[in-house]
Amino acid sequence: MEFKEVVGRRRSIRYFLPFRPVEREKIQTIMEAARLASCAVNASFLRAVVVERDKLSREVLESLKVPTTTLQLDMAPVHIYFYGNLNAVEESHGKTLKELYDVGALNPTHGWSYKFIDEVVWNQILEPLSKNAQVLPVAVAMDCGVAMCQALLTAFDEGLGALLTAFNAENAKKVFKVPDHFLPLYAMLVGYPAESWEAGGQRPRPPFESLYFEGEYGVPLRRDPAVVANLKQAKMIQDPAPLPWRKDEIRALSRMFGLPE
């Protein structure tokens, strides 16, 4: 698929084919995409534990659920539990920035040098950030979100369905033996969708002009109808939910899996 169509086809898939495994190469492809994402100071904050559902006991699987994440965990063959490494800045100690300098990504034209990295970036910015218990988790979560989004879109490009969802972080920490400095984020459930790829249509969103502004807050960024038409042709903007047959699809899925209607 072209990139715009991948963005347009993304849905939060909640009905998976529980009996159909996901090829290992597709999981690796998803994680390769996450690894290549932009990351502040080249520190690579994102960490993940990839789990095959069938290798979890029923007791463990139940312990990972929260009120909004129940049946999805049972249906998705693969779970990817995402964490942010709160020690990544401290561990990098400017070394990852020097790697960028060495390969020409950061250059003297913009004021970069080893001395600038050591005396300004590390001493004045990164070291204080690494010790700021309020700001650091926000910065780490934001950075990880970029990588998680690339992983999510790649799943759809691979012909899979996926969903970012909450999980029981306290129990997951015990089960997966993650260290204390890993910030729990989301689980990404991955599998072949049992529902149609449209999943009822693109989800409702607020009006464009209510979200984005030009020059200053309160001045809506103008939405050009010609651009909208082009994006519809590129399949980035698609038919909105609910598609007329969605309720029939849900009833059929309920009967197929023996779920309440």
Q: How do the strands and helices of this protein lay out in sequence?
A:
Blueprint: H1 3-9, H2 24-35, E1 46-52, H3 58-63, H4 71-75, E2 78-85, H5 88-92, H6 95-102, H7 114-130, H8 135-157, E3 161-165, H9 169-176, E4 182-191, H10 208-211, H11 225-233, H12 246-257
Structural notes for this entry:
The chain is of the alpha+beta class. It has a single domain (3-194), classed as NADH Oxidase. The protein has helices at 3-9, 24-35, 58-63, 71-75, 88-92, 95-102, 114-130, 135-157, 169-176, 208-211, 225-233, 246-257, and strands at 46-52, 78-85, 161-165, 182-191. It has a four-stranded antiparallel sheet with strand order 1-2-4-3. Helix 1 packs across helix 8 (135-157) and helix 2 (24-35) crosses helix 8 (135-157). The two termini are 34 Å apart. The relative contact order is 0.19. The model has no long low-confidence stretch (mean pLDDT 97).
